[in-house]
Design goal:
2 copies of one chain form a homodimer. Chain A is an alpha/beta fold. Helix content of chain A is about 45%, strand content about 15%. In chain A, the strands form 3 sheets. Chain A has a 7-stranded parallel beta sheet with strand order 1-2-6-7-8-9-10. Chain A has a 3-stranded antiparallel beta sheet with strand order 3-4-5. In chain A, strands 11-12 form a two-stranded antiparallel sheet. The two termini of chain A are about 25 Å apart.
Chain lengths: ~350, ~350
């Protein structure tokens, strides 16, 4: 899922995203609550009407953003008091208020308000945090069901509330978190609190510990991950959905993903190169422009650099996911993986 | 002509420019000489190959930029010594070297190296400057003809060298400059040294003084102008071609041109407005998005704001020129002008 934090996937238009055939994009409740305001977006017919996106949208609850504020926030059982990163104004997010925000935004999938447990965290803190996340999930569900009834009665489409598994890197906590959440019988489950500094081994172990607890017939979503190899790891581990700013943010930093690995487009080595960024790629960036021109655009800080790079990286990521899906359906995922890493080198 | 100073029209792709049906775009010899270097661009097959633009290109000689450097440049009969605005390195532009640069860039129309006389300027300075520009035009033509022969012999397409009329706001100087240039029998002529601070009356008078001296069957190009009403003034005065950064630069500052006048899209008044930017416009920005969303994109400094605004402004300018052309052909330009200003209010 391409990330459109502020109701736009940075450097792409909605027409670009349709051309890229993105099935679903992300929005962020924290950012949209602050600007332009969830009630304003509701008056435009929700995020779909506001940004003119006809396909599914998932909103993150903003838990990750609020907890990232560090000095600016205070956690209680009630919720999180925080100060806006924009103007320092004081706000309170509770599980109930976040549901109200996400209902106003009107995304197809909405995430429960959780605490993204930091890394490292002691087992004691991870347990407390996970248990609070579980109590909050229950409160989210209660408020969501109230709002949903009124909404459906008013002829508006229902929204799917996903829960978020926490528990740090502690197996027992992750398993308890997953089981307790599954007890709420939600339409989908996410694994949160990863990609926050843990090792690859810790991440793989956490996925391995958690996924078997989550029902196979409901989507499993690994939040905030990752590099191409991390997506492959996730799929191998049983993950169905991902979101990450890496393809868009790295694009703006001139780091492009190709069939042979990462390319740093600002490097002088590309200045006289009239070959495409990735000869194996059929996107506009690769079929219409060569490396020398892309390097020039980055070198001169031109906006077109950000657009062409983002377009390519999103194309790369969506194609990566599509080809994994096709390989699973065809029953030759292991072959696919070998073929991918035969050309793709990283790190 | 949309301005693509550094081989890109800021915030648009070449695909966008083709969709907008731009017939010709601009590049700038000064900027491209510094980055990525004209010899590098030549190795890519000139600007057309470098930026993958299949339609005509005009390169400005860089005279305007070099003379804008103020403290960093020194004018002699030979040419202009200047220091790069990027790294302070020392460079010399002569009429001959600029022709070499513009031949390497390979645009379809190339501009002579002139001195853009500042405003205000004494009549004495304006005369000296204009006479030097005339001597430089002769030197440009000589070097251009040498380069052209070799080029055509090598099977490369010929380039059209346009001369630039100078003379400040002094009628006699403008007329002498125009007559002397016409004596060189160039394929087109530009009026330079306007839009540098003079009044509208001075500009109109200068156009009126100059245009009758320029042959009607060759293109007349007014450089660096302007707002929509300035383009109409120019067309009324007999001008065929314009270039200006106003549509693109103003777009990035959230100033958008509509059939009813200028709109400042950052203003709070648009925050809850679900109407299109311009109901009379059929561009993507106006048919796919509403003012509330565009305002949000500017408010949050999102890249999509710059793209959608630029796309619309270029669409507006190209449509303005097309509709003037159609009105002239249909013989009802006066009616057209009245109809335009019946809705368009400015200032």
């Amino acid at each position: 899922m391409p990330v459109g934090t502020q109701a736009t996937v940075k450097a792409l238009s909605q027409q670009d995203l349709l051309t890229l055939d993105a099935d679903i994009i992300l929005g962020n409740a924290y950012h949209l609550y602050l600007r332009p305001g969830h009630e304003r977006i509701e008056r435009f017919g929700g995020l779909h009407g506001f940004m003119n996106w006809p396909r599914p949208i998932l909103t993150d609850s903003g838990g990750f953003q609020v907890f990232s504020l560090q000095e600016l926030r205070k956690i209680t059982e009630e919720g999180v008091q925080f100060r806006s990163h924009l103007d320092g104004s004081a706000h309170l997010f509770t599980p109930e208020s976040v549901m109200e925000i996400e209902h106003a935004l009107g995304a197809d999938i909405i995430m429960a308000f959780d605490e993204c447990t930091p890394y490292p965290a002691t087992e004691e803190y991870a347990r407390e945090s996970m248990e609070r996340t579980q109590r909050w999930a229950q409160r989210c569900l209660s408020r969501h069901e109230q709002l949903q009834s009124a909404q459906v009665a008013a002829g508006r489409p229902p929204q799917a509330l996903f829960g978020i598994v926490q528990g740090g890197v502690y197996r027992q906590l992750r398993q308890r978190s997953a089981r307790d959440l599954v007890g709420l019988d939600l339409p989908g489950y996410a694994i949160g609190g990863l990609a926050v500094g843990e090792s690859r081994a810790e991440r793989l172990a956490t996925i391995e510990d958690t996924v078997p607890e989550l029902p196979a017939h409901k989507p499993r979503y690994l939040m905030g991950v990752g590099l191409p190899q991390d997506l492959i790891d996730g799929v191998v581990g049983g993950i169905d959905m991902f979101d990450c700013v890496i393809p868009t943010r790295n694009a703006r930093n001139s780091t492009l993903f190709t069939s042979t690995g990462r390319v740093r487009m600002k490097n002088a080595i590309h200045a006289d190169d009239d070959s495409p960024l990735d000869a194996a790629c059929e996107c506009i960036t690769c079929t219409q422009y060569h490396r020398g021109y892309l390097r020039h655009l980055f070198q001169t800080n031109e906006l077109l650099a950000l657009h062409l790079a983002t377009y390519h990286n999103i194309h790369f990521y969506l194609r990566l996911m599509r080809s994994m899906r096709a390989a699973i359906i065809d029953g030759d995922f292991t072959d696919w993986q070998q073929a991918f890493f035969a050309t793709y080198q990283d790190g």
